[in-house]
Design goal:
The protein is of the alpha/beta class. Helices cover about 40% and strands about 10% of the residues. Strands 1, 3, 4, 6, 7, 8 and 9 form a seven-stranded mixed β-sheet that branches. Strands 10-11-12 form a three-stranded parallel β-sheet.
Length: about 550
């Protein structure tokens, strides 16, 4: 039996939804308004492993043919700062920033050009995102309806839409299907969004369908930019009580201010000319944020489970600032664990930072810059000249040390709560620098270094029992962030390369375990053990986790 795969964080429907949402009637007339419809990709970008804008990385057809059989598909209303200009502050920005801000204002056509060419979002969708009519909450519900519309339906074959009049005239869809069937054609295919834990368990064991678990990326999706906190609270309950399917977890923070908690620095230096994420950057929770987080978890003010708040939607700490994560653990996870209510910690699409503590991340957060690794120290107190000299002489380490990534303290909480660390396939998050972007390291070595870093973190924890150290192997899985405009590890640009990745990982671990001094590999005594370990990472760990924690809308039982 071929190896099955799961992905703790991806966007299977994103490309189709972006292209079709503003022209629904047109696509419905042609029978194309479906998450199964493939938006024909630019194959050159795909073959070069470039950033996933011009090509699809994990649409449902690729997922089906790549044997992705458990997908945690994330709903994400696009954040407005991606398509709207910003107002630079006097004293904080150079005059060039004022000029860039003016030239890229959403009121001028250049901003639209950037979005349509770089993010590959159709112009009518960009216009909608820039308009006052665009509302996160409405968009979230519309996206949910799009994703759920074909759940449980078995299709004979999918449709293909080719963007651009010239491409539709000169490119043959039939020829593309015949030449690249794994990218373009799915037959007798089905995805299924389970409604109950029993439904979920049956679906996970059924290899003839993709089990799709719904998640949400960003609390902004509740409309926190406009709605009162009372209305945001009502929307949490609306999701729990009125949506036809449960939501498994929410990535509480994202790239910009959600008015609830601080987000981590995530935009590289060259992106700062277009995107300003400074509002609430690296901050912690406010009281409204604590309230909404508590209500997602189904807890009352005493941190007790309360049926009034409905089923538990788990919290994903990816994109939370280090300060927010520290507060989440100290104020919610640890007190609940002491009451024997274990809230599993999820980091759905992360890299390993190489840092030891969250406090270390907090103290160094102002020094984060491109190519900032765990060997870099605090630069914030230096003059510009001193800073440049220090950077010039600093050795670079393996891991991206921005506080968006998870440190030893995060890993401790994941293991203690038997949560999940989803490993991102974004090369920048994993620690690729300009120096080694085109090197051999930009492949299985990069992914294995991060996996090994996570495991070594647990094995070096003196507070862990031997059982807890071994437990870390069940707490790691794939969490690519494919279709999230990532720059993927070059040999694995889409879900179709998962099988190659698994084979490469088996070889890498098998070679490493020959070093008898590596205690964290001592339980792997044969190639069969290694193969089983990789199967766990690729599918079994996520499958066991979702079976254990998938919520029941009708009951408080987990």
């Amino acid at each position: 039996m071929a190896m099955r795969f799961s992905d703790l964080h991806c966007h299977n429907h994103m490309r189709a939804h972006f292209w079709m949402q503003e022209q629904r009637k047109r696509f419905e007339r042609k029978g194309e308004f479906s998450p199964w419809t493939v938006i024909a990709s630019n194959r050159k970008g795909y073959l070069k492993g470039k950033m996933g804008a011009s090509y699809s990385q994990t649409d449902l057809v690729k997922a089906w043919n790549g044997n992705l059989r458990l997908t945690f598909n994330s709903l994400y209303p696009l954040e407005k700062p991606f398509v709207k200009g910003f107002k630079p502050k006097v004293g904080d920005d150079k005059w060039t920033r004022f000029l860039i801000a003016f030239a890229t204002s959403h009121k001028l056509p250049f901003r639209d050009f950037i979005q349509t060419m770089y993010m590959r979002i159709p112009d009518d969708a960009v216009d909608y995102f820039q308009s006052t009519a665009y509302d996160y909450w409405d968009s979230l519900n519309r996206e949910m309806r799009f994703v759920t519309k074909d759940s449980g339906k078995r299709i004979k074959r999918n449709e293909v839409f080719t963007p651009g009049l010239a491409r539709r005239i000169f490119e043959s869809e039939k020829k593309r299907r015949n030449n690249f069937p794994r990218e373009m054609l799915a037959t007798n295919a089905c995805y299924h969004i389970p409604k109950t834990p029993k439904d979920l368990r049956a679906s996970v064991e059924d290899d003839s369908e993709i089990t799709m678990v719904l998640t949400i990326e960003g609390s902004h999706a509740l409309g926190t930019d406009r709605a009162s906190i009372a209305e945001v609270s009502r929307r949490v309950q609306y999701i729990k009580n009125e949506w036809p399917i449960p939501v498994f977890f929410i990535t509480f923070a994202h790239h910009f201010d959600n008015k609830l908690c601080g987000h981590a620095h995530s935009i590289p230096d060259q992106g700062k000319a277009l995107l300003d994420q400074s509002a609430n950057l690296n901050a912690g929770f406010n009281d409204n944020g604590r309230r909404i987080l508590r209500e997602f978890l189904g807890l009352n003010k005493k941190l007790e489970r309360d049926s009034k708040y409905g089923y538990r939607i788990l919290i994903d700490v990816k994109h939370m600032s280090a300060k927010s994560r520290k507060e989440y653990y100290e104020e919610f996870v640890i007190p609940c664990m002491e009451k024997e209510d274990v809230i599993p910690v999820i980091g759905s699409h992360c890299g390993y930072s190489g840092r030891k503590t969250l406090e270390e991340h907090i103290s160094l957060q102002d020094s984060e810059r491109d190519e900032y690794t765990e060997l870099c120290g605090d630069e914030s107190h230096l003059s510009e000249t001193e800073r440049k000299q220090l950077i010039k002489n600093q050795p670079l380490g393996k891991f991206n040390a921005w506080n968006i990534n998870l440190c030893d303290e995060d890993i401790r909480m994941i293991v203690k709560t038997k949560g999940l660390f989803g490993l991102s396939f974004d090369q920048r998050i994993l620690g690729i620098t300009d120096k080694d972007k085109d090197s051999k390291r930009n492949g299985i070595q990069l992914l294995w270094e991060n996996i090994e870093g996570i495991v070594k973190s647990a094995y070096s924890n003196e507070d862990f029992t031997e059982e807890e150290k071994l437990q870390v192997w069940q707490c790691i899985t794939i969490g690519t962030d494919l279709e999230g405009l990532i720059d993927p590890v070059s040999p694995y640009p889409t879900v179709l390369e998962f099988e190659v990745f698994a084979g490469n990982l088996i070889f890498e671990i098998e070679e490493s375990r020959k070093n008898l001094e590596l205690s964290y590999l001592s339980h792997l005594t044969s190639i069969d053990d290694v193969r089983k370990c990789v199967e766990d990472f690729c599918f079994n760990n996520a499958a066991a986790f979702v079976k254990k924690h998938y919520p029941s809308k009708e009951s408080m039982e987990q």
